[in-house]
Each structure stands twice: as structure tokens, then as C-alpha cells.
Amino acid sequence: MSLHDEMIEMGDRAVRAARELAGLTTRKKNSILEAMAEEMDSRRAEIHEENEKDLAAGKEAGLSAALLDRLELTDARIDAMIKGLRDVAVLKDPVGTKITRWMRPNGLEIVKTRVPIGVIAIIYESRPNVTADATALCFKTSNAVILRGGREAIHSNRVIADILQAGGARKGLPDHSIQLVTTTDRDAVRELVQMVGRVDLAIPRGGEGLINAVSTMARVPVIKHYKGICHTYIDDSAELEMAVQVAENAKCQRPGVCNAMETLLVHADIASTFLPQFAQRMQARGVELRGDEATRQVLPDIAAATDADWEAEYLDLILAIRVVGHVDEAIDHINTYGSHHSDAIVSETEAHQKRFTQRVDSATVYVNASTRFTDGAEFGMGAEIGISTDKLHARGPMGLEELTTYKFVVAGDGQIRE
Amino acid sequence: MSLHDEMIEMGDRAVRAARELAGLTTRKKNSILEAMAEEMDSRRAEIHEENEKDLAAGKEAGLSAALLDRLELTDARIDAMIKGLRDVAVLKDPVGTKITRWMRPNGLEIVKTRVPIGVIAIIYESRPNVTADATALCFKTSNAVILRGGREAIHSNRVIADILQAGGARKGLPDHSIQLVTTTDRDAVRELVQMVGRVDLAIPRGGEGLINAVSTMARVPVIKHYKGICHTYIDDSAELEMAVQVAENAKCQRPGVCNAMETLLVHADIASTFLPQFAQRMQARGVELRGDEATRQVLPDIAAATDADWEAEYLDLILAIRVVGHVDEAIDHINTYGSHHSDAIVSETEAHQKRFTQRVDSATVYVNASTRFTDGAEFGMGAEIGISTDKLHARGPMGLEELTTYKFVVAGDGQIRE
Description:
The structure is a homodimer.
Chain A: H1 3-21, H2 26-42, H3 44-60, H4 65-71, H5 75-90, E1 98-103, E2 109-116, E3 119-124, H6 129-140, E4 144-148, H7 154-169, E5 178-180, H8 187-193, E6 201-205, H9 208-217, E7 230-234, H10 240-252, E8 261-267, H11 268-284, E9 288-291, H12 293-298, E10 303-304, H13 307-310, E11 318-324, H14 327-337, E12 342-346, H15 350-359, E13 364-369, E14 386-388, E15 396-398, E16 404-415
Parallel strand pairs in A: 3-4, 3-6, 4-5, 7-8, 7-12, 8-11, 9-10, 9-11, 12-13
Antiparallel strand pairs in A: 1-2, 2-16, 14-15
């Protein structure tokens, strides 16, 4: 069978599974998640064995230490996958929720009802734990899932998918609810994201290269979890100590993640008081600063920032700094160079706060708080499948609700249109 | 300047306009809509003059009578455009609405706030009134719009766009909020729907060919308003007279539209009582019936339906009929051959109603009512930009709310992440 036909068949199976999944009760789904967790707990040795094969092949192929680390399934990571399955079981099931309900004058009752999306394709890279984490969220929302992980994690992904299927099957998981693309043929991704009518949504999880490749090839809708070029703007009216702490936290608390600050914008009137104090704190934390000309007038020892710095996602202890003359200049900078992820203003002026939150075109905008809070758990949404930098359907932390859509259920007693 | 650069520049202008639009109050937007309506009323002669040019060119080019009819702007159609602008002014403005609001234990306030999408590209065919209708909806939701109409309506579209701009400008419409692509170069559409970062959403309005072309070329998100292959399923427990009336209405009340019924499914146990009565009614209405074998056992005089009939959107007084053995068979048929638009069950059995509404994967599912109600006005949503057959972001009638997205506005007093 050709790859194309194979993928089409996989899609057809997923569509059939999705129809069965739509009928499962929450109780049943939760018992299936628990069975998956138990199955995984009982097959740890097998996971280690398969994971070893990937690690050995990876070493032989000369993968970097960082990649090998992502690939490794330690006992702690297996524990985390098991806990993840149980955590998702506890989350509120959005499927079947009545979003709104209204009556029409002719007696028709219209109920906007939350329903599964259908078939979701997850395309990811080297972390095999995504196999369990993404499946749990898609399954809890009654979606069928087609998983396509990195070729370097194929043995690990296979055993995890098998565990989820086998564990789930014991409690009535519909066949083909969880399918893993086992061919490592790169064309499989293209086939997958072009199966209009069989795949309802593709979510790429990984680096910029993967996301761009998937978006370019896709014919089905894609929700992107893209990079974070996040800003903090220190307004002239900012409380100095709050500004220093919020900016320090945004930069340093965990610099390698998408909601960490990459560029700091400072109002000219506060630059000479704020910047020296802040620079001292940054020096203590080992952060390299790069500034525009006005910044370097206050901090002459730091390197000059170039245009490339405004577009950089360092994910590291590096920070670009620019002095601006007005809140509007900060807004313009963010809208021009940012990635529409998370941006903050520190200000005591209500008009500036409002202008900033209204005009900065980002998924999350903060007033007097660190950008590091953009996160499903920190938002109180429970687990997230990612942080969407897209504008349609899901924006910002993407939890269970965002893995659903809606339909209108209209009930009458014989109404006809005149 | 190359077409590519021209379109990029147009996109940049739209992005800047969108930022201004995001700051307009509802009152201001409504006064702009009123000014547009007044401007249009005062420039009727000009509209007729330009429309005449399109009609003359169309006749010369040998356009069909149907196309010429769509192209023509009669006084009644100009009245309808003017009324449309005023009707949209009256609708509730969704922008700025707080969708949900919650506090976190650390004191952060999170407000999920409705905001404009940004820049919307509308790609349409021969009806020039779309220029005004689509603009009104996009503008009311503070979106910048880039319009690309059919080449055969270029003079009409130009004058309408000019009227909207000029009228709006008198009341402070930001520059470039409404831009019309005036080149008739076909490549402009490709450029338009590939401007990631400048166009946030493309909505094609027209026939299957246009929608397919746009979807295939697009790199930006597309919401499709696709065809309607709508079904009515008559369950064994249906009330006979209600079933006849609902099915008749779904087929005959306006057969040329997307929410009209194209296929009727009938439970085997009720076929011999329902079908003769219904066929008589269809004969009186001049509807041609085509049935499967079981149907033709009851109605031997009708033509045989082939597989092509199950996939046909007749938009005409033709109806395909199939007898099924069970509600599940009806559901399967609809999910296999339908277009996920609008489908109805006529049944007195609650379990069947529930199974149908849960499992039929369509934007709108009806119990004991005609499919003809799928419509923004009939739903009480006011004007609609179309009826989405997609699953993400907007499904079913797409009104003002569906032309918005959301952002999270998070307010604190110095919160940092531990």
C-alpha cells in the first residue's frame, strides 16, 4: 500500500473512532485514563528498554547532549506521565457543556453546545512524553488523535502509544482512538496535514523549523505555538522597586521558556533612575545587556543592540534594552518586533495601562506583573497543550476548552420557515 | 512597484489601520456607519453610472443572464445596502466585552476580553453589494478589511468602496480601514492570502471553485462558507403530518440556498405510510424525486438514485431519498455524504433525538424543525457574514462575535513567579 493510501486509511479509522468517542460519558473517559496510568505503571521496564534503543541509536548518530536529554525517559519522567494522565482525569470535562441557550419567538430552542473537534494530529519532535501528555488532553475532550513524533524517539513513542491503547482498551477505549504514525518517512507529515475531511486540526509542537514546515504544507487548520519575544515596558510613572522586581523575574526566573522577557523598554524620563539600579541587579544575575544609544548613555559599559536584537528570542541570560519617549512608542515597538505572546507594562498611570492593554496585539497583556505567568496551570486552567500565538480559535494558554468546538442543537415541535 | 510589494504595502497599511480601529468607541463606529449610509444615499447616480459600465462590459463579454442579474445594482439593492449599514450600527458591539473574569490566589485578575481579529481579507465574486455588507460587519468589529471582488464588478466595487471611505472619513474613519484591491491581476488573491502577519483571516465568499482555490493557496487562516448538502431523517416514531411539513419546507421553501434539504432519509418501518403521502405533496410542488431501491419499492415511478445523488447539492427542485433501517444508518449516511452544514431528525423518541444530535457532525442539528432556519437573522444574531462549514473558531452562522477573537488582560500589583 502506498504511503498516501496508508495515511488515508489511518484518517478514516480516526474519523470512525471520533464518532464513537463523541458518545463516551465523562465517567467512562476518566476510568480509561486511570487504566492507562495503571498500565504505564506496570510496564516501566518495557519503557526503559525501548527508550534505551532510542538513546543508543541517538548516541551512535551523534545527537547533542541536549537532544539526548530530551529523549531520555527517567523514572521521574515516567512518574510525570502517569501523574499527567491522572491529573487530566480530574479536570472538568468541557464536552456537552451548554455554552449559551436561547429561545426564538417561534418557539425554537437553540443550544450552543460544546463538542469535540474530531480528529487532531499532533506533530512533535524528540520528547516522547508528549505522546502521553497530548493524548490525555485530546482523549479527555473526546477527540481521536494521530500522533507523529520524531524519528529519534520512535521506539519510545511506540511503546507509550501501545500502553495507552492497551490500558484504555481494558476499559472500553474505542479502537483507533489513538494512532501513532510508525513510518519514519518524512512525507507522512505532509500527507497528514493535507487530509482535509479526515484531520480537523494539526498542532505542531516543537521548534520554529517544524512549525514553519507544518504551516506551509498544511491544508487543514493549524494552531501554532510559536516563539515568545516578550517585552516589559517600564512607564515613567512606574514604581521603581516593583519595576525592577517584575523585570528581573520576567528575565531571570526561567530564561529558557517562551514567556520569559527578551526586550525591556524604558520610558526616557525614568531611564536615568531605573536603569542603573536594574543593571546592577542584572549583573548580579549574570545577565548580558545590550542597549540602544539612549540606554548606553545611561549604561555606557554595555554592548550596542542592533536591529537583530529586537527580533531575537534569546532563551538565555541576555536582554535587549531600548529607551522610548512615550507609551505609544513602546506599543509600536512591541507590535512591530514582538511575537504576540506576552507583554507587560509597569505603570501607575491608568490611561497608559489602558492604552497598552488595548493596543498591544498579544495573546496576554500584563499590568504590573511578570510575563512568566502565561501558563495553563498559572492561569488555573489545568494542563495545557501549548500556548497559542495564533489569533483564531485559541489564543494564549490552550487547555481542554480550546480542544473543543461547538454545534447548534435546535429543538422544535414542527417549526417551518414561512 | 511589483504586485508583491504593492500587496505588502497594502497589508502594512491595513495593520496600522487595525491598531487605530481597536481604539474606536462604539458610538464613534456607529456614527461612521451612519455617515457611510448617508454618503451612499447621496451618490446613487454615481453608483448606477459605474454599475452600468460593468453591466455593459459583462454583456459584451457574454456573461450569463444569472451573472448579469447578480451584478446589477437596482435601486432596491442600493436601498438594501444602505439599510444594511444602518442595521449593523444598531447591533450590539462585541468588542471590549469581558467574556470571563477570574482572580488567582496570588491576587492576579485575569480578564478574557473580546478584541478585533485585526485584518480580514474578503474575497468574493460578482455581487458588488458584498463590498458594503462585508465591510459593515468587519468595521463594526474594529477590523481593517481588504476587499477583493470579482473583476466583472470592478467599477461598482470601486465606487462603493470610495463611498464607504469618503463617508466614513467625514466622521473620523482611520485611513486605510477599508481597502479595495483594484488590480484585476489574478495573482493578487494569492499574494493576499499568503501575507502571514499582515492578514489575520481570509473569508472567501462564492462558489466551490473560489473557495477551493483560496483554501489551497492560503497561508493565513481561512474560514469557509461551503456548500450545504442538508438532510432530513424521518424516524419510525415521527408524527406523520409534522414529518411531511418539515421535509416539504426544507426542500421547497427556497430550494436554491445552502440550508435547503437535498437528501431525505426515511426509516424502513414508516416508509410505506410516509412516502406515498410525501410524494404526492412533492408532485404538487413540482419536485423531481430520485430514490434507492427500497424507496422505489414504495414509489415505483420515480428515478433511481445513484451514488452521485448522495453527494449532490442540487439547489433545485430535486430530492434524493433513501430508506434506512436504523437511526444509526441515517447518522452514518449524513456523516459520510453530508457537508456538515444543517441536518434534521423528525422523531418522537428521545433516545433517537439525542443520538442524532450528539453524533451527527454538523454545525447545526435540528430536532423536529426545518433545516431552513440556519441563518444569522433566524437565529437572532443579526447580520451574518456567512454560514461557516468549518469547525474551528466559527461554526454555523457567523455574526459579529465570530469576527472577533480574545486576549487575556492580566492585572496585578507587582506579582512575580516564584
